[in-house]
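Posted in: Protein Modeling Q&A

I'm a second-year student putting together a small comparison for a lab meeting, and my supervisor asked me to include a predicted structure for MotA/TolQ/ExbB proton channel family protein. I've never done this before, so apologies if this is the wrong subforum. The sequence is pasted below exactly as I got it from our records. If anyone can share the structure token output, I'd also love a short note on what stands out.
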Amino acid sequence: MLAIFQAAGWPIWLLLIASIVAMALIVERLMYLRRGKIIPRKLLDEVVQVYRNNNITPDIIDKLEKSSPLGIVLSAALRNVDAPREVMKESIEEAGSGVAHTLERFLTTLGTIATLAPLMGLFGTVVGMIEIFGSQNAAGSNPAALAHGISVALYNTGFGLAIAMPTLVFYRHFRALVDSFIIDMEQQAVKFVDIVHSKRK
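Accepted answer (user: helix_wrangler)
Welcome! Here is the predicted structure, written out as tokens:
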């Protein structure tokens, strides 16, 4: 592997750094963006039970807020449980926008790497081509320098594409996952609002 990096020239090290960053972000997002962690299965039922038992305390709200992203949204609803429907929905939307920002963390960086990696590979290709033309002289071409320039060009192009393709797949996957989580949280929060205000009627 080291021999490949040496043959590919210095531009490959930029791609190597990009691949390490992309791998770290993918692993981190895979660990964080798990449905059970973001939207615990029976959390809404538990919050409804707390509300129906009239057992809402600051400690329970704080515990709920720290439990999960859905807990943050539902804790905002519990804090405004005595407020009018519109005020309650507004507080949920504000909490939801903060949660969405947290869920989308690092996705911009991942998308940037997916876009930038082929360009970095192209840059390495250009460097390789410059070396090829630089190896030409009045006496003719230098075969060793010519071979090195071609290897720099091809290795960088291939490595850039090899980084970009899986990174783009994971970026799209995480993007869709976050969107589905946000929609699910919105639906559960609206369900809770409906339960609170239908009970009052």
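A couple of things worth pointing out for your meeting: Residues 143-200 form the longest helix (58 residues). The mean pLDDT is 87.
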